[in-house]
């Protein structure tokens, strides 16, 4: 025996489906609002690390390239000076001699690029794959960070690994 649907049954079913969709959409909207806003999180979106506590100076994407523990190491990344006067930035690797990078007011100095500053440490006490502790001083501000040490395995860095001693910095 076949059952015949009445118009009231169809209307009730349609209202039930509509109510389910409305409740589902509202729940989805509420749950989406509970997700953390990752665009507000501080992170370095590349191989290097950024500084946070140097006042008007920012270190961006800092890393060291070296062929091995005890070999020379080249600092790569950039320093930006948002202040009103030139700043001498001193970068001291743990167990090594510092390099100094001057950055004019409102300027960015790139490190390790063809057109940028050369900041090479005579010796790096960490093997590629490790983290090298650095002390960075800009004016009165000092920050200690550990930056990755990479070698020439990645094609982007293969031509940038130093083979000689330190730069005159």
Q: Main β-sheet: number of strands, strand sense, barrel status?
A: 8 strands, mixed
CATH topology of the largest domain: Immunoglobulin-like
The gross shape turns out to be elongated
Radius of gyration (CA) equals: 28 Å
Overall number of strands: 8
Per DSSP, what share of the residues sits in E-state strands of 2 or more residues? Answer: 25-35%
CATH architecture of the largest domain: Sandwich
- CATH class categorisation of the largest domain: Mainly Beta
Kindly name the structural category. alpha+beta
* Low-pLDDT sequence parts: 165-169
Description:
By secondary structure, this protein is α+β, with helices and mostly antiparallel strands. It folds into two domains: 1-35; 57-150, Immunoglobulin-like, CATH 2.60.40. The protein contains one helix and eight strands, in the order αββββββββ. The chain has one helix at 7-34; strands at residues 57-66, 73-81, 87-93, 99-103, 108-111, 120-121, 131-138, 141-150. Strands 1, 2, 3, 4, 5, 6, 7 and 8 form an eight-stranded mixed beta sheet that branches. Strand 7 and strand 8 form a beta hairpin. The longest helix has 28 residues, at 7-34. The radius of gyration is 28 Å and the shape is elongated. The protein starts with 6 loop residues before the first helix and ends in a 19-residue tail after the last strand. Mean pLDDT is 83; it is low at 165-169.
Topology diagram in text:
Elements: H1 7-34, E1 57-66, E2 73-81, E3 87-93, E4 99-103, E5 108-111, E6 120-121, E7 131-138, E8 141-150
Parallel strand pairs: 1-8
Antiparallel strand pairs: 1-2, 2-5, 2-6, 3-4, 3-7, 7-8
